Amino acid sequence: MKMTKFFLPTLREDPSEAETISHKLLLRGGFIRRVASGIYNFLPMGLRVLQKVENIVRVEMNRAGALEILMPMVQPAELWKETGRWDAYGKELLRFKDRKEHEFCLGPTHEEVITALVRGEVRSYRDLPLILYQIAPKFRDEMRPRFGLMRAREFIMKDAYSFDADEEGLDKSYQLMYETYHKIFKACGLRFKAVEAHTGAIGGEVSHEFMVLAETGEDTLGSCENCGYASNVELTPAISSEKYPSEPSKPLEKVYTPNVRTAKDVADFLGLPLKKITKTLIYIIEEKEPIAVVLRGDHEVNEVKLERALGGRAFRLATDEEILKITGAHPGFLGPLGLSIRVIADKSLENFPNFVIGANEDNYHFLNANLGETFKADLVLDLRKAKEGDLCPKCGIPLNFIKGIEVGHIFKLGTKYSSAMGATFLTKEGKEKPLVMGCYGIGVSRVISASIEQNHDNEGIIFPWQIAPFQIALISLVRDKLSLVEELYRALEENWEILWDDREERPGVKFKDMDLVGIPIQIILGKTFQEKEEVELKVRKTGERYYVKRENLIPFIKKLAEELSSAQ
Ligand code: ATP
Ligand code: MG
Protein backbone atom coordinates (compact mmCIF):
# COMPACT_ATOMS: atom_id res chain seq x y z
CA MET A 1 0.00 0.00 0.00
CA LYS A 2 1.30 3.40 -0.94
CA MET A 3 0.71 6.08 1.66
CA THR A 4 -0.29 8.59 -1.04
CA LYS A 5 -3.18 6.29 -1.94
CA PHE A 6 -4.07 5.51 1.66
CA PHE A 7 -6.12 7.30 4.33
CA LEU A 8 -3.97 7.77 7.41
CA PRO A 9 -4.72 11.04 9.20
CA THR A 10 -2.19 11.17 12.05
CA LEU A 11 -2.21 13.85 14.73
CA ARG A 12 0.85 15.58 16.22
CA GLU A 13 -0.75 16.48 19.55
CA ASP A 14 -2.46 14.35 22.18
CA PRO A 15 -6.22 14.78 21.74
CA SER A 16 -7.80 16.25 24.86
CA GLU A 17 -10.64 13.69 24.87
CA ALA A 18 -8.21 10.83 25.59
CA GLU A 19 -7.06 9.77 29.05
CA THR A 20 -5.25 6.48 28.51
CA ILE A 21 -2.22 5.76 26.34
CA SER A 22 -4.10 3.39 24.05
CA HIS A 23 -6.91 5.87 23.49
CA LYS A 24 -4.43 8.66 22.67
CA LEU A 25 -2.37 6.51 20.32
CA LEU A 26 -5.41 5.09 18.52
CA LEU A 27 -6.59 8.62 17.79
CA ARG A 28 -3.15 10.05 16.99
CA GLY A 29 -2.24 7.13 14.77
CA GLY A 30 -5.38 7.52 12.67
CA PHE A 31 -6.92 4.19 13.72
CA ILE A 32 -10.26 5.42 15.05
CA ARG A 33 -12.37 8.57 15.26
CA ARG A 34 -15.13 9.35 17.71
CA VAL A 35 -18.71 9.66 16.45
CA ALA A 36 -20.44 10.04 19.82
CA SER A 37 -19.63 9.03 23.38
CA GLY A 38 -18.42 5.41 23.27
CA ILE A 39 -19.14 5.12 19.53
CA TYR A 40 -16.33 5.05 16.97
CA ASN A 41 -15.45 4.90 13.30
CA PHE A 42 -12.72 2.45 12.44
CA LEU A 43 -10.41 4.02 9.85
CA PRO A 44 -8.46 1.79 7.42
CA MET A 45 -5.58 1.27 9.88
CA GLY A 46 -7.94 0.46 12.75
CA LEU A 47 -10.00 -1.90 10.65
CA ARG A 48 -6.89 -3.78 9.54
CA VAL A 49 -5.93 -4.43 13.17
CA LEU A 50 -9.51 -5.38 14.05
CA GLN A 51 -9.61 -7.86 11.18
CA LYS A 52 -6.30 -9.36 12.27
CA VAL A 53 -7.70 -10.03 15.73
CA GLU A 54 -10.98 -11.30 14.26
CA ASN A 55 -9.10 -13.73 12.04
CA ILE A 56 -7.03 -15.12 14.89
CA VAL A 57 -10.25 -15.65 16.84
CA ARG A 58 -11.97 -17.20 13.82
CA VAL A 59 -9.15 -19.61 13.02
CA GLU A 60 -8.93 -20.92 16.59
CA MET A 61 -12.70 -21.15 17.07
CA ASN A 62 -13.04 -23.06 13.80
CA ARG A 63 -10.19 -25.36 14.82
CA ALA A 64 -12.11 -26.12 18.02
CA GLY A 65 -15.08 -27.19 15.90
CA ALA A 66 -17.22 -24.12 16.62
CA LEU A 67 -19.40 -22.90 13.74
CA GLU A 68 -19.72 -19.27 12.74
CA ILE A 69 -23.14 -17.67 12.37
CA LEU A 70 -24.39 -14.07 12.41
CA MET A 71 -27.24 -12.89 14.60
CA PRO A 72 -29.02 -9.55 14.44
CA MET A 73 -28.12 -6.65 16.69
CA VAL A 74 -31.79 -5.67 16.99
CA GLN A 75 -33.66 -8.06 19.25
CA PRO A 76 -37.38 -8.26 20.12
CA ALA A 77 -38.42 -7.63 23.73
CA GLU A 78 -40.49 -10.85 23.78
CA LEU A 79 -37.36 -12.99 23.91
CA TRP A 80 -35.96 -10.98 26.83
CA LYS A 81 -39.29 -11.22 28.61
CA GLU A 82 -39.12 -15.01 28.42
CA THR A 83 -35.97 -15.03 30.55
CA GLY A 84 -37.01 -12.13 32.77
CA ARG A 85 -34.02 -10.07 31.66
CA TRP A 86 -36.14 -7.37 30.00
CA ASP A 87 -36.75 -6.04 33.52
CA ALA A 88 -33.63 -7.32 35.22
CA TYR A 89 -30.96 -6.05 32.84
CA GLY A 90 -30.92 -2.39 33.83
CA LYS A 91 -30.02 0.66 31.80
CA GLU A 92 -27.17 -0.85 29.80
CA LEU A 93 -29.90 -2.43 27.68
CA LEU A 94 -30.92 0.17 25.11
CA ARG A 95 -34.65 -0.30 24.55
CA PHE A 96 -36.75 1.29 21.83
CA LYS A 97 -39.95 0.89 19.83
CA ASP A 98 -40.48 0.45 16.11
CA ARG A 99 -43.18 2.25 14.10
CA LYS A 100 -45.74 -0.35 15.15
CA GLU A 101 -44.98 0.30 18.81
CA HIS A 102 -43.29 -3.09 19.21
CA GLU A 103 -40.53 -3.11 21.79
CA PHE A 104 -36.94 -3.95 20.84
CA CYS A 105 -33.44 -3.63 22.22
CA LEU A 106 -29.93 -3.47 20.84
CA GLY A 107 -28.17 -6.71 21.78
CA PRO A 108 -25.67 -6.35 24.62
CA THR A 109 -25.26 -10.15 24.47
CA HIS A 110 -27.13 -12.89 22.61
CA GLU A 111 -28.21 -15.68 25.00
CA GLU A 112 -31.90 -15.12 24.28
CA VAL A 113 -31.56 -14.99 20.49
CA ILE A 114 -29.36 -18.07 20.28
CA THR A 115 -31.50 -20.09 22.69
CA ALA A 116 -34.57 -19.22 20.62
CA LEU A 117 -32.73 -20.27 17.46
CA VAL A 118 -31.56 -23.57 18.88
CA ARG A 119 -34.86 -24.52 20.49
CA GLY A 120 -36.47 -24.54 17.09
CA GLU A 121 -33.74 -26.55 15.40
CA VAL A 122 -31.99 -28.92 17.81
CA ARG A 123 -34.18 -31.89 18.68
CA SER A 124 -32.06 -34.86 19.59
CA TYR A 125 -28.96 -35.83 21.55
CA ARG A 126 -27.54 -36.71 18.11
CA ASP A 127 -27.33 -32.98 17.29
CA LEU A 128 -25.07 -32.41 20.31
CA PRO A 129 -22.58 -31.10 21.26
CA LEU A 130 -22.94 -27.90 19.29
CA ILE A 131 -20.91 -24.70 19.58
CA LEU A 132 -22.05 -21.66 17.59
CA TYR A 133 -20.32 -18.28 17.51
CA GLN A 134 -20.41 -14.90 15.86
CA ILE A 135 -18.14 -11.89 15.59
CA ALA A 136 -20.39 -8.86 15.57
CA PRO A 137 -21.21 -5.48 17.14
CA LYS A 138 -22.75 -5.30 20.59
CA PHE A 139 -24.38 -2.29 22.18
CA ARG A 140 -24.27 -1.60 25.91
CA ASP A 141 -25.36 1.80 27.15
CA GLU A 142 -22.43 1.93 29.59
CA MET A 143 -22.76 4.41 32.44
CA ARG A 144 -19.24 5.74 31.84
CA PRO A 145 -17.96 4.94 28.36
CA ARG A 146 -14.25 5.69 28.41
CA PHE A 147 -10.74 4.95 27.23
CA GLY A 148 -11.71 4.66 23.57
CA LEU A 149 -12.27 1.08 22.47
CA MET A 150 -11.67 -0.17 26.00
CA ARG A 151 -15.12 0.68 27.35
CA ALA A 152 -17.20 1.65 24.38
CA ARG A 153 -20.97 1.58 23.98
CA GLU A 154 -20.86 -0.03 20.56
CA PHE A 155 -18.04 -2.56 20.31
CA ILE A 156 -17.10 -5.78 18.54
CA MET A 157 -17.47 -9.01 20.45
CA LYS A 158 -16.94 -12.63 19.62
CA ASP A 159 -19.65 -14.51 21.46
CA ALA A 160 -19.96 -18.27 21.42
CA TYR A 161 -22.58 -20.56 22.92
CA SER A 162 -22.24 -24.27 23.62
CA PHE A 163 -25.08 -26.78 23.84
CA ASP A 164 -24.63 -30.15 25.50
CA ALA A 165 -26.75 -33.02 26.74
CA ASP A 166 -25.45 -32.98 30.30
CA GLU A 167 -23.04 -31.39 32.78
CA GLU A 168 -20.27 -33.69 31.71
CA GLY A 169 -20.64 -32.47 28.14
CA LEU A 170 -20.64 -28.86 29.33
CA ASP A 171 -17.42 -29.49 31.28
CA LYS A 172 -15.80 -30.70 28.06
CA SER A 173 -17.04 -27.77 25.95
CA TYR A 174 -15.97 -25.34 28.67
CA GLN A 175 -12.51 -26.90 28.88
CA LEU A 176 -12.21 -26.77 25.09
CA MET A 177 -13.06 -23.06 25.06
CA TYR A 178 -10.73 -22.43 28.02
CA GLU A 179 -7.87 -23.93 26.02
CA THR A 180 -8.94 -22.20 22.80
CA TYR A 181 -8.88 -18.82 24.60
CA HIS A 182 -5.32 -19.48 25.72
CA LYS A 183 -4.38 -20.13 22.09
CA ILE A 184 -6.19 -17.01 20.85
CA PHE A 185 -4.63 -14.58 23.31
CA LYS A 186 -1.21 -16.11 22.85
CA ALA A 187 -1.57 -15.78 19.09
CA CYS A 188 -2.51 -12.10 19.61
CA GLY A 189 0.86 -11.61 21.31
CA LEU A 190 -0.68 -10.69 24.68
CA ARG A 191 0.65 -11.33 28.19
CA PHE A 192 -2.42 -12.54 30.06
CA LYS A 193 -3.79 -14.65 32.89
CA ALA A 194 -6.99 -16.68 33.30
CA VAL A 195 -8.68 -15.98 36.64
CA GLU A 196 -11.73 -17.23 38.53
CA ALA A 197 -14.51 -14.70 38.08
CA HIS A 198 -17.92 -13.45 39.11
CA THR A 199 -20.77 -14.30 36.73
CA GLY A 200 -22.65 -10.94 36.88
CA ALA A 201 -25.72 -10.25 34.74
CA ILE A 202 -25.06 -13.27 32.49
CA GLY A 203 -25.55 -15.70 35.37
CA GLY A 204 -24.43 -19.29 35.87
CA GLU A 205 -22.13 -20.94 38.38
CA VAL A 206 -18.56 -21.21 37.11
CA SER A 207 -16.70 -18.60 35.14
CA HIS A 208 -13.21 -17.47 34.19
CA GLU A 209 -11.99 -14.14 32.93
CA PHE A 210 -8.97 -13.66 30.72
CA MET A 211 -7.00 -10.66 31.90
CA VAL A 212 -4.34 -8.78 29.99
CA LEU A 213 -1.79 -7.63 32.55
CA ALA A 214 -1.44 -3.84 32.41
CA GLU A 215 -1.11 -1.04 34.95
CA THR A 216 -4.09 0.80 33.46
CA GLY A 217 -6.42 -2.18 33.90
CA GLU A 218 -9.77 -1.50 35.55
CA ASP A 219 -9.75 -4.90 37.28
CA THR A 220 -7.59 -6.12 40.13
CA LEU A 221 -6.49 -9.73 40.38
CA GLY A 222 -5.37 -11.66 43.41
CA SER A 223 -2.65 -13.89 42.07
CA CYS A 224 -0.43 -16.46 43.78
CA GLU A 225 3.08 -16.95 42.47
CA ASN A 226 3.47 -20.11 44.47
CA CYS A 227 0.52 -22.30 43.43
CA GLY A 228 -0.87 -20.44 40.42
CA TYR A 229 -4.21 -19.54 42.06
CA ALA A 230 -5.69 -16.40 40.51
CA SER A 231 -9.05 -14.71 40.88
CA ASN A 232 -10.69 -11.40 40.17
CA VAL A 233 -10.49 -9.48 43.46
CA GLU A 234 -14.32 -9.29 43.31
CA LEU A 235 -14.14 -12.95 44.21
CA THR A 236 -10.87 -13.34 46.12
CA PRO A 237 -11.54 -14.52 49.69
CA ALA A 238 -10.04 -12.04 52.17
CA ILE A 239 -7.77 -14.12 54.37
CA SER A 240 -5.79 -11.96 56.73
CA SER A 241 -2.33 -12.86 57.95
CA GLU A 242 -2.94 -10.68 61.00
CA LYS A 243 -3.34 -12.27 64.46
CA TYR A 244 -5.33 -10.25 67.00
CA PRO A 245 -3.91 -9.99 70.54
CA SER A 246 -6.05 -11.65 73.19
CA GLU A 247 -7.10 -8.64 75.18
CA PRO A 248 -9.93 -8.53 77.73
CA SER A 249 -13.05 -6.60 76.69
CA LYS A 250 -13.09 -3.13 78.20
CA PRO A 251 -16.27 -1.27 79.19
CA LEU A 252 -18.00 0.68 76.45
CA GLU A 253 -17.18 4.39 76.65
CA LYS A 254 -18.95 7.22 74.87
CA VAL A 255 -16.61 9.92 73.56
CA TYR A 256 -17.23 13.37 72.11
CA THR A 257 -15.89 13.50 68.53
CA PRO A 258 -17.02 16.89 67.22
CA ASN A 259 -17.20 17.08 63.43
CA VAL A 260 -14.89 14.11 62.85
CA ARG A 261 -16.58 12.05 60.23
CA THR A 262 -14.25 9.84 58.23
CA ALA A 263 -12.64 6.79 59.82
CA LYS A 264 -9.26 8.42 59.20
CA ASP A 265 -10.30 11.65 60.98
CA VAL A 266 -11.69 9.66 63.92
CA ALA A 267 -8.45 7.67 64.16
CA ASP A 268 -6.35 10.86 64.12
CA PHE A 269 -8.62 12.58 66.62
CA LEU A 270 -8.55 9.66 69.06
CA GLY A 271 -4.90 8.84 68.44
CA LEU A 272 -5.73 5.27 67.43
CA PRO A 273 -4.70 3.24 64.37
CA LEU A 274 -7.20 3.38 61.47
CA LYS A 275 -8.02 -0.32 61.73
CA LYS A 276 -9.40 0.23 65.26
CA ILE A 277 -12.13 2.48 63.87
CA THR A 278 -15.06 0.73 62.22
CA LYS A 279 -17.38 2.14 59.63
CA THR A 280 -21.06 1.36 59.32
CA LEU A 281 -22.72 1.62 55.90
CA ILE A 282 -26.46 1.57 55.33
CA TYR A 283 -27.75 -0.12 52.17
CA ILE A 284 -31.31 -0.38 50.88
CA ILE A 285 -32.24 -3.77 49.42
CA GLU A 286 -34.73 -3.72 46.56
CA GLU A 287 -35.92 -0.26 47.55
CA LYS A 288 -37.49 -1.57 50.74
CA GLU A 289 -35.28 -3.27 53.30
CA PRO A 290 -32.46 -1.28 54.93
CA ILE A 291 -29.43 -3.14 56.30
CA ALA A 292 -26.26 -2.09 58.07
CA VAL A 293 -22.81 -3.36 57.11
CA VAL A 294 -19.98 -2.95 59.63
CA LEU A 295 -16.31 -3.32 58.81
CA ARG A 296 -12.88 -2.02 59.78
CA GLY A 297 -11.90 1.51 58.78
CA ASP A 298 -8.96 0.25 56.73
CA HIS A 299 -11.14 -2.21 54.80
CA GLU A 300 -13.45 -1.72 51.83
CA VAL A 301 -16.78 -3.40 51.13
CA ASN A 302 -16.67 -5.87 48.26
CA GLU A 303 -20.09 -5.37 46.69
CA VAL A 304 -19.95 -8.66 44.78
CA LYS A 305 -19.57 -10.53 48.07
CA LEU A 306 -22.38 -8.42 49.54
CA GLU A 307 -24.61 -9.22 46.57
CA ARG A 308 -24.02 -12.93 47.14
CA ALA A 309 -24.77 -12.53 50.86
CA LEU A 310 -28.08 -10.89 49.88
CA GLY A 311 -28.99 -13.75 47.58
CA GLY A 312 -28.39 -11.73 44.42
CA ARG A 313 -30.97 -9.08 45.30
CA ALA A 314 -30.38 -5.54 44.03
CA PHE A 315 -29.17 -2.98 46.55
CA ARG A 316 -27.82 0.55 46.77
CA LEU A 317 -26.29 2.84 49.36
CA ALA A 318 -28.87 4.78 51.38
CA THR A 319 -29.12 8.55 50.93
CA ASP A 320 -28.17 10.91 53.78
CA GLU A 321 -31.84 11.56 54.37
CA GLU A 322 -32.67 7.86 54.64
CA ILE A 323 -29.68 7.35 56.93
CA LEU A 324 -30.87 10.09 59.29
CA LYS A 325 -34.31 8.51 59.43
CA ILE A 326 -32.98 5.01 60.10
CA THR A 327 -30.16 5.77 62.56
CA GLY A 328 -30.99 9.20 63.96
CA ALA A 329 -27.53 10.45 62.95
CA HIS A 330 -25.65 11.81 59.96
CA PRO A 331 -23.09 9.72 58.06
CA GLY A 332 -19.82 9.69 59.97
CA PHE A 333 -21.40 8.86 63.30
CA LEU A 334 -23.12 5.56 62.46
CA GLY A 335 -22.72 2.35 64.37
CA PRO A 336 -24.36 -1.06 64.75
CA LEU A 337 -25.53 -0.54 68.32
CA GLY A 338 -29.24 -0.07 68.92
CA LEU A 339 -30.31 -0.26 65.27
CA SER A 340 -33.64 -1.85 64.49
CA ILE A 341 -32.44 -3.14 61.11
CA ARG A 342 -30.40 -6.22 60.17
CA VAL A 343 -26.67 -5.92 60.78
CA ILE A 344 -24.03 -7.75 58.76
CA ALA A 345 -20.51 -7.68 60.19
CA ASP A 346 -17.35 -8.41 58.28
CA LYS A 347 -15.50 -11.50 59.46
CA SER A 348 -12.44 -9.51 60.48
CA LEU A 349 -14.41 -8.08 63.44
CA GLU A 350 -14.50 -11.56 65.01
CA ASN A 351 -12.18 -11.68 68.04
CA PHE A 352 -11.13 -8.09 67.30
CA PRO A 353 -10.89 -6.54 70.75
CA ASN A 354 -12.10 -3.09 71.74
CA PHE A 355 -12.79 -1.20 68.53
CA VAL A 356 -14.52 2.11 67.89
CA ILE A 357 -18.07 2.43 66.53
CA GLY A 358 -20.26 5.45 65.76
CA ALA A 359 -22.88 6.20 68.44
CA ASN A 360 -25.78 6.91 66.04
CA GLU A 361 -25.74 10.38 67.55
CA ASP A 362 -24.03 13.31 65.81
CA ASN A 363 -20.57 14.10 67.19
CA TYR A 364 -20.26 10.95 69.31
CA HIS A 365 -18.51 7.59 69.05
CA PHE A 366 -18.11 4.63 71.40
CA LEU A 367 -14.75 3.16 72.40
CA ASN A 368 -14.29 -0.53 73.25
CA ALA A 369 -16.99 -2.19 71.19
CA ASN A 370 -16.75 -5.99 70.83
CA LEU A 371 -18.69 -8.10 68.34
CA GLY A 372 -21.09 -10.50 70.07
CA GLU A 373 -20.90 -8.59 73.36
CA THR A 374 -21.59 -4.92 72.67
CA PHE A 375 -23.76 -5.70 69.68
CA LYS A 376 -24.94 -8.78 67.83
CA ALA A 377 -24.73 -9.19 64.09
CA ASP A 378 -27.37 -11.12 62.14
CA LEU A 379 -24.65 -12.37 59.83
CA VAL A 380 -20.87 -12.46 60.09
CA LEU A 381 -19.08 -13.17 56.86
CA ASP A 382 -16.29 -12.24 54.50
CA LEU A 383 -17.52 -9.00 52.94
CA ARG A 384 -14.37 -7.03 52.37
CA LYS A 385 -12.06 -6.62 49.41
CA ALA A 386 -8.92 -8.70 49.71
CA LYS A 387 -5.81 -6.53 49.77
CA GLU A 388 -2.03 -6.49 49.94
CA GLY A 389 -0.89 -8.76 52.75
CA ASP A 390 -3.83 -11.18 52.48
CA LEU A 391 -3.11 -14.84 51.90
CA CYS A 392 -3.74 -17.29 49.08
CA PRO A 393 -6.85 -19.38 49.82
CA LYS A 394 -5.15 -22.44 48.30
CA CYS A 395 -1.62 -22.40 49.73
CA GLY A 396 -1.47 -19.63 52.34
CA ILE A 397 1.36 -17.61 50.77
CA PRO A 398 0.75 -13.80 50.50
CA LEU A 399 -1.08 -12.95 47.27
CA ASN A 400 0.09 -10.44 44.68
CA PHE A 401 -2.45 -7.86 43.62
CA ILE A 402 -2.04 -6.84 40.00
CA LYS A 403 -4.06 -4.86 37.48
CA GLY A 404 -5.70 -6.45 34.47
CA ILE A 405 -7.88 -5.65 31.46
CA GLU A 406 -10.66 -8.18 30.90
CA VAL A 407 -10.51 -9.33 27.28
CA GLY A 408 -12.46 -12.55 27.59
CA HIS A 409 -15.02 -14.13 29.86
CA ILE A 410 -16.34 -17.69 29.80
CA PHE A 411 -19.33 -19.04 31.74
CA LYS A 412 -20.98 -22.32 32.54
CA LEU A 413 -24.63 -21.34 32.24
CA GLY A 414 -26.19 -24.72 32.88
CA THR A 415 -29.91 -24.71 32.06
CA LYS A 416 -30.69 -21.12 33.11
CA TYR A 417 -31.70 -20.00 29.61
CA SER A 418 -32.81 -23.31 28.13
CA SER A 419 -35.22 -23.99 31.02
CA ALA A 420 -36.66 -20.47 30.92
CA MET A 421 -37.12 -20.60 27.15
CA GLY A 422 -38.05 -24.26 26.73
CA ALA A 423 -35.01 -25.25 24.68
CA THR A 424 -35.08 -29.01 25.08
CA PHE A 425 -33.85 -32.13 23.30
CA LEU A 426 -34.69 -35.83 23.37
CA THR A 427 -32.22 -38.10 25.16
CA LYS A 428 -31.24 -41.55 23.92
CA GLU A 429 -34.00 -42.91 26.12
CA GLY A 430 -36.53 -40.57 24.51
CA LYS A 431 -36.79 -38.28 27.54
CA GLU A 432 -37.15 -34.52 27.03
CA LYS A 433 -34.44 -32.48 28.83
CA PRO A 434 -33.29 -28.87 28.74
CA LEU A 435 -30.03 -28.19 26.86
CA VAL A 436 -27.00 -27.56 29.06
CA MET A 437 -25.33 -24.34 27.95
CA GLY A 438 -22.10 -22.40 28.21
CA CYS A 439 -21.26 -18.96 26.83
CA TYR A 440 -17.93 -17.49 25.85
CA GLY A 441 -17.14 -13.85 25.04
CA ILE A 442 -14.10 -12.01 23.71
CA GLY A 443 -13.91 -8.23 23.50
CA VAL A 444 -12.37 -8.23 20.02
CA SER A 445 -12.13 -4.43 19.77
CA ARG A 446 -11.00 -4.19 23.40
CA VAL A 447 -8.09 -6.52 22.57
CA ILE A 448 -6.66 -3.72 20.41
CA SER A 449 -6.61 -1.25 23.31
CA ALA A 450 -5.29 -3.88 25.69
CA SER A 451 -2.46 -4.74 23.32
CA ILE A 452 -1.46 -1.09 23.04
CA GLU A 453 -1.55 -0.61 26.81
CA GLN A 454 0.93 -3.46 26.99
CA ASN A 455 3.05 -2.57 23.97
CA HIS A 456 4.06 1.06 23.49
CA ASP A 457 6.84 3.54 24.20
CA ASN A 458 7.20 7.33 24.12
CA GLU A 459 7.16 7.36 20.33
CA GLY A 460 3.97 5.37 19.89
CA ILE A 461 2.52 1.90 19.44
CA ILE A 462 4.61 -1.27 19.16
CA PHE A 463 2.25 -3.80 17.60
CA PRO A 464 2.99 -7.49 18.01
CA TRP A 465 3.69 -9.00 14.60
CA GLN A 466 0.45 -11.00 14.62
CA ILE A 467 -1.99 -8.07 14.83
CA ALA A 468 0.00 -5.24 13.24
CA PRO A 469 -1.94 -3.32 10.53
CA PHE A 470 1.05 -3.81 8.20
CA GLN A 471 4.10 -5.88 8.92
CA ILE A 472 6.64 -3.73 7.14
CA ALA A 473 6.95 0.01 6.72
CA LEU A 474 8.95 1.21 3.76
CA ILE A 475 10.39 4.68 4.17
CA SER A 476 12.12 5.83 1.06
CA LEU A 477 14.14 9.03 1.21
CA VAL A 478 15.97 8.72 -2.09
CA ARG A 479 15.19 10.93 -5.05
CA ASP A 480 16.58 8.74 -7.78
CA LYS A 481 16.82 4.95 -8.17
CA LEU A 482 13.03 5.10 -8.11
CA SER A 483 12.56 2.05 -10.29
CA LEU A 484 14.77 0.10 -7.90
CA VAL A 485 12.61 1.24 -4.98
CA GLU A 486 9.48 0.22 -6.85
CA GLU A 487 11.03 -3.17 -7.61
CA LEU A 488 11.93 -3.68 -3.97
CA TYR A 489 8.41 -2.72 -2.89
CA ARG A 490 6.91 -5.28 -5.28
CA ALA A 491 9.22 -8.02 -4.02
CA LEU A 492 8.36 -7.27 -0.40
CA GLU A 493 4.67 -7.07 -1.19
CA GLU A 494 4.72 -10.65 -2.43
CA ASN A 495 5.62 -11.83 1.04
CA TRP A 496 4.24 -9.31 3.51
CA GLU A 497 1.85 -6.42 4.00
CA ILE A 498 3.80 -3.24 3.28
CA LEU A 499 2.98 0.37 3.89
CA TRP A 500 5.22 2.51 1.70
CA ASP A 501 5.56 6.12 2.75
CA ASP A 502 5.95 7.59 -0.72
CA ARG A 503 4.87 11.08 0.36
CA GLU A 504 6.88 14.22 -0.36
CA GLU A 505 7.53 14.76 3.34
CA ARG A 506 10.59 15.52 5.44
CA PRO A 507 12.40 12.40 6.74
CA GLY A 508 11.62 13.43 10.33
CA VAL A 509 7.88 13.45 9.64
CA LYS A 510 8.05 10.01 8.01
CA PHE A 511 10.05 8.50 10.89
CA LYS A 512 7.71 9.97 13.48
CA ASP A 513 4.57 8.70 11.74
CA MET A 514 5.93 5.19 11.34
CA ASP A 515 7.06 5.02 14.97
CA LEU A 516 3.61 6.24 16.00
CA VAL A 517 1.60 3.59 14.14
CA GLY A 518 3.78 0.76 15.41
CA ILE A 519 4.53 -1.34 12.32
CA PRO A 520 7.05 -3.99 13.52
CA ILE A 521 9.76 -3.64 10.85
CA GLN A 522 10.86 -0.40 9.18
CA ILE A 523 12.91 -0.45 6.02
CA ILE A 524 14.68 2.81 5.37
CA LEU A 525 16.06 3.60 1.95
CA GLY A 526 18.44 6.47 2.57
CA LYS A 527 22.09 7.29 2.16
CA THR A 528 23.37 3.70 2.31
CA PHE A 529 20.88 2.68 -0.34
CA GLN A 530 21.86 5.59 -2.52
CA GLU A 531 25.55 4.85 -2.20
CA LYS A 532 25.86 1.06 -2.01
CA GLU A 533 22.33 -0.34 -2.44
CA GLU A 534 22.34 -1.33 1.20
CA VAL A 535 19.05 -1.27 3.01
CA GLU A 536 18.66 0.02 6.56
CA LEU A 537 16.30 -2.03 8.71
CA LYS A 538 14.91 -0.96 12.07
CA VAL A 539 13.00 -3.17 14.49
CA ARG A 540 10.32 -0.97 16.03
CA LYS A 541 10.25 -2.86 19.32
CA THR A 542 13.96 -2.83 20.16
CA GLY A 543 15.24 -0.01 18.01
CA GLU A 544 17.91 -2.40 16.67
CA ARG A 545 19.21 -1.47 13.23
CA TYR A 546 20.63 -3.73 10.56
CA TYR A 547 22.23 -2.92 7.21
CA VAL A 548 21.48 -5.55 4.61
CA LYS A 549 22.50 -5.92 0.96
CA ARG A 550 19.52 -5.58 -1.33
CA GLU A 551 19.79 -9.14 -2.63
CA ASN A 552 19.84 -10.57 0.94
CA LEU A 553 16.87 -8.60 2.16
CA ILE A 554 14.03 -11.10 1.70
CA PRO A 555 15.72 -14.05 3.48
CA PHE A 556 16.89 -11.68 6.22
CA ILE A 557 13.36 -10.41 6.89
CA LYS A 558 11.98 -13.95 6.80
CA LYS A 559 14.26 -14.87 9.67
CA LEU A 560 13.49 -11.69 11.57
CA ALA A 561 9.75 -12.18 11.04
CA GLU A 562 9.99 -15.64 12.51
CA GLU A 563 11.66 -14.26 15.62
CA LEU A 564 9.16 -11.41 15.94
CA SER A 565 6.08 -13.59 15.48
CA SER A 566 7.16 -16.09 18.11
CA ALA A 567 8.23 -13.47 20.70
CA GLN A 568 5.76 -12.65 23.48
P1 ATP B 1 -16.77 -5.46 32.05
O1 ATP B 1 -16.69 -6.02 33.44
O2 ATP B 1 -15.46 -4.94 31.54
O3 ATP B 1 -17.91 -4.52 31.86
P2 ATP B 1 -18.39 -7.66 31.26
O4 ATP B 1 -18.14 -8.65 32.33
O5 ATP B 1 -19.58 -6.82 31.29
O6 ATP B 1 -17.08 -6.72 31.12
P3 ATP B 1 -18.95 -9.72 29.30
O7 ATP B 1 -20.41 -9.56 29.40
O8 ATP B 1 -18.32 -10.91 29.86
O9 ATP B 1 -18.23 -8.40 29.85
O10 ATP B 1 -18.52 -9.52 27.77
C1 ATP B 1 -17.51 -10.27 27.12
C2 ATP B 1 -16.30 -9.41 26.75
O11 ATP B 1 -16.70 -8.24 26.03
C3 ATP B 1 -15.56 -8.87 27.95
O12 ATP B 1 -14.65 -9.82 28.45
C4 ATP B 1 -14.87 -7.64 27.38
O13 ATP B 1 -13.63 -8.01 26.80
C5 ATP B 1 -15.81 -7.18 26.30
N1 ATP B 1 -16.56 -5.98 26.72
C6 ATP B 1 -17.54 -5.91 27.64
N2 ATP B 1 -18.01 -4.66 27.75
C7 ATP B 1 -17.29 -3.92 26.86
C8 ATP B 1 -17.30 -2.53 26.50
N3 ATP B 1 -18.15 -1.68 27.05
N4 ATP B 1 -16.44 -2.11 25.54
C9 ATP B 1 -15.57 -2.97 24.96
N5 ATP B 1 -15.52 -4.28 25.26
C10 ATP B 1 -16.37 -4.75 26.20
MG1 MG C 1 -19.86 -4.83 31.70
What would your notes on this structure say?
This protein is an alpha+beta fold and 568 residues long. It is built from 15 helices and 31 strands. The strands form eight sheets. Strands 3, 7, 8, 9, 10, 11, 12, 21 and 24 form a nine-stranded mixed β-sheet that branches. A five-stranded mixed β-sheet has the order 16-14-15-17-20, with no helix packed on it. The longest helix has 21 residues, at 167-187. The protein is globular. The mean pLDDT is 95. Bound molecules: adenosine-5'-triphosphate (ATP) and magnesium ion (MG).
Structure in a nutshell:
The protein has 568 residues and is of the alpha+beta class. The chain has 15 helices and 31 strands. The mean pLDDT is 95.
SSE blueprint:
Elements: H1 21-28, E1 32-36, E2 39-42, H2 44-63, E3 67-68, E4 74-76, H3 77-83, H4 85-88, E5 95-97, E6 103-106, H5 111-121, E7 130-139, E8 154-164, H6 167-187, E9 192-196, E10 207-213, E11 219-223, E12 230-232, E13 253-256, H7 263-270, E14 278-285, E15 289-296, H8 303-309, E16 315-317, H9 320-327, E17 342-346, E18 355-358, E19 364-369, E20 379-381, E21 400-414, H10 416-421, E22 424-426, E23 432-434, E24 436-443, H11 444-454, E25 456-457, E26 460-461, E27 472-476, H12 482-493, E28 498-501, H13 507-517, E29 521-525, H14 527-532, E30 534-539, E31 545-549, H15 553-566
Parallel strand pairs: 3-7, 15-17, 17-20, 27-28, 27-29
Antiparallel strand pairs: 1-2, 4-6, 5-6, 7-8, 8-24, 9-10, 10-21, 11-12, 11-21, 13-19, 14-15, 14-16, 18-19, 21-24, 22-23, 25-26, 29-30, 30-31
The protein binds adenosine-5'-triphosphate and magnesium ion.
Residues 109, 140, 142, 151-152, 155, 157, 200, 202, 406-409, 441, 443, 445-446 line the site of adenosine-5'-triphosphate.
